[in-house]
Amino acid sequence: MVKEKQREGMDAKRVHIYTDGGCRPNPGKGGWAAVLMYDGHMRELSGAETRTTNNRMELTAAVKALEALKRPCVVVLHTDSEYLRNGITKWMPHWKRSGWKRKEGSVKNKDLWQLLDGLTARHRIEWRWVKGHAGDPLNERCDELASRAIDTLS
User: Fold this and answer.
1) Taking the model in full, what pTM does it have?
2) I need a surface site. Which of 47, 52, 86, 92 has the fewest CB within 10 A?
3) CATH assignment of 13-151, given 3.40.109.10, 3.40.1210.10, 3.30.420.10, 1.20.120.1560?
């Protein structure tokens, strides 16, 4: 009964997550960041990779944020990446049915999409798009953290 309630979200922790990723140049050095807010707490995560793309960093931010959750949660995930939001909400069901193929060949970033698919199965997630660089304080914070992460590679 408890597991059923958690799955339905009745007893699940509610978490707001903001994510961002970027590259300088694209492709090039990349950084990702996430801000998780729950029960009055805020946790910041970030990291960097030397050879990557902007889209990989956007996906990595979501993956790392969801990996940080210790139990099933009700999540509101805010992203300024239409690639991430559309991929997870619109394109992924088709990719899975077609064996992770598109008309143009294999799905790009398939490894991260598959990892994200597995992580999302644990949670009830609402995917919200926010306009980047438009003054949303937590989106701006993620951008700053991702940029700082890139700077650590210099």
Assistant:
1) 0.91
2) 86
3) 3.30.420.10
